[in-house]
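Fig. S4 source data, part A: sequence.
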Amino acid sequence: MTNDLLMRISASLVEGDADLTVALVGQALSEKVEPLELIDRALAPGMKQVGEKFSCGEFFIPNLIMAAKGMKRAMELIEPELRKRQLTARSAGVVVIGTVKGDIHEIGKSLVGTMLSANGFQVHDLGVDVSIEGFVHAVETTRANLIGLSSLLTTTMSVQRKVIEALIGAGLRSRVKVMVGGAPVTGRWAEEIGADGYAEDAVGAVELALRLSAVS
């Protein structure tokens, strides 16, 4: 019965039915299914499947948003149960993310942050038009091991380079992996400015973050 319920939770995430996901997670908790088991055997596999469907062109951004919404609401139910048991969900890493100074584009950056959170990262979203000093301070205070720099304008791409230079100047570069993204950004640009990786969409950003966290 438990296996069937876990499979139904995964399926509800894939289908983008957040209300059903929450209802099934609530049922599972009432039936004494362990919260970590819910994460490891239902929610995480569901999100992985959503990412795979997006990567092969079967799913689109609205599918990602709905799945991430279901994941977030499910975790809001699970986290109090984890605290009761003095447990914590395994963190994939700590990420500082934001859109660089001079750029106020929000949607892509926010989707990346939501998807990272849904995949087990602790995300500190600094918002848009973030100063170089703001990024450096956030890395220092959160002890993040990843930073995501978004730029949707060619005129602000250079700020990504300046943030990396500032991290070097502050002695923080060795402890944080830098991801860059945005419409005009390319893998070649990432290499040129000394970033650790580039992703062209939210699913790619999650895959990159997981890869970089594994070696950080």
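Fig. S4 source data, part B ends here. The chain has a mean pLDDT of 93.
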